[in-house]
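May I ask you to comment on the folded chain given beneath this request?
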Amino acid sequence: MANAAIQFNTEPYDASIPRPMGRNSAGEGFLRGFLNHADVDTFHLWNLHDQDQAQLEALLARLGPPTRPVQWLGRADRARLTEAGALYIPTPELRHEAWARRAYGSTAYSLTGVTHTIAETYIMDEISALLLAPIEPWDALVCTSEAGRKAVETLLEAVAGYLQDRFGASRIAPAQLVTIPLGVHASDFRQDPAARTKWRRTLQIPDDAPVALHLGRFSLGTKRTIL
C-alpha cells in the first residue's frame, strides 16, 4: 500500500497560531506537501481527539485544499485504519497506538512517528518506551537529522543496556529509525525585489549591505544534544 491515515488535529499542523514552535512549521509543511503531492486516491484523516470538524476543514482549505476525496475517521474508528494500511503520528508517541493495534493484529497497519524536539522529558520517556511497546519491523520513527538520529540511538542504547542489566534481556528488538530531512516549499522563498526594497528601507539597511536573517528560538532545556 502507498497511503497513510494522518492522525489529525490542528495544533501539530498549524503554524499560524500565536508563538508557533518549529514543530508547528514542520507539521504544516508536511501536510501541505502531502495534500498537494501525495500519489493517493483518497486522504484518510483520523480525528482522534474529537476536534470540531469545521476547524479541521478550515485548516485543510488554507493548506490545500484537497483535490481528492477525504475519508474522515472518528475517534472510535481505529479499525478503519486498515483501509489506508498505515498511520502517521506527528510525534514520537507510538507506544499507545502500538498497544491499541494489538486488538486488530500486529499486521493490520504500520505506524510511523517523527522526531522534532527530542530533549523534552516526556518525549524522552516516549522514545524510551519504544523498546517495551509492541513495535514491529514495519513501524518506523522518522528522524529529521543525523544529529537527532544519533541522539535517539544513544537514548535507546542506554535503555537497552538497562533492560539487559536489570532483567537479563537477551533479545531487544530495535526500533526502526529512518533519517528524512524536513522538506522545503521552494515557492515560499521566491525572490520579491519590491519586498526586499521595502524592508531595507524600513530597517534602514543600505542596498549593498549583507543581511542574515534568523528565525527560531534557543532553549538550553529542550534544544540540548544528548551525549
Observations:
- The longest strand covers residues 110-114.
- The chain has a mean pLDDT of 91.
- The chain is about 35% helix and 10% strand.
- The chain has one domain: 5-190.
